[in-house]
Amino acid sequence: MILDQISQMKKYVSTLPALQQVIDILESGKLEALELGSYSTEQKDLRYNLFTYKTEKTEASEYEVHRKEADVQILLKGHERMDIASRDLLTATTAYDEEKDFFMAKGEKLLSYHAKQGSFVVFFPGEPHAPNLVDESSSQVVKMVFKVLL
After folding, report:
1. Cα separation of 88 and 114, whole Å?
2. CA-to-CA distance for 112 and 128, rounded, in angstroms?
3. pLDDT of 12-50, one tens digit each?
4. Three-state DSSP class for 148?
5. Three-point CA angle 58, 64, 70, nearest 5°
6. Cα–Cα separations (whole angstroms), residue 53 to 38, 76, 111, 124
7. Per residue in 90-134, pLDDT tens?
8. Cβ–Cβ contacts within 10 Å for residue 124, how many?
9. pLDDT for res 150
10. Going by C-beta distance under 8 Å and a sequence separation of 6 or more, which residues neighbour residue 115?
11. pLDDT at position 148, please?
């Protein structure tokens, strides 16, 4: 897992080279005109979604887990809490969806990350996470989530 500010993302390109294309997209100036939705890139191992929601849940009931893709979650507006569970004590609650690369699981919360506007987090395959949670107060969030096939 990587937690940091968008302004520091370049430091992690050597760890996850696809972050350079993420940076290029963020710096392209095209974000203002993008509509909410799903997008592909020239690289078949990188796609992304732009969406908005209001945080409403105060506790994580389940955690999502990916097997093949890393999630690069970027908060463009708003704030939220993301809970991270221990990998050791997971109990799957749904079957693995090969096409969407995820399954849901119950687990023991390990820590909480308080994501603010301008921050990003990378969840690598196998790292159970529950985003979209209320952090002190409900917030309207605008988020980009890049999916990086590893």
Report:
1. 23
2. 12
3. 999 999 999 999 999 998 888 899 999 999 999 999 999
4. strand
5. 120
6. 15, 12, 23, 23
7. 999 999 999 999 999 999 999 999 999 999 999 999 999 999 999
8. 15
9. 95
10. 73, 75, 79, 80, 81, 82, 121, 131, 135
11. 98
* Domain coverage including residue 63: 2-149
DSSP string, 58-78: SS-S-EEE-SSEEEEEEEEES
Contact 118, 71 (CB under 8 A): no
Contact 72, 22 (CB under 8 A): yes
CATH of the domain at 77: 2.60.120.370
Q: How many domains does the chain have?
A: 1
Gap between the terminal Cα atoms of the chain: 14
User: Of 75, 86, 80, 78, whose CA–CA distance to 129 is shortest?
Assistant: 86
Q: Tell me the C-alpha distance between 68 and 103, whole Å.
A: 12
C-alpha 9/C-alpha 121 separation (Å) is 10
Q: Looking at the DSSP assignment, which residues form a beta bridge with residue 111?
A: 84
pTM score, two decimals?
0.94
CA dist., res. 83 & res. 110, Å (int): 8
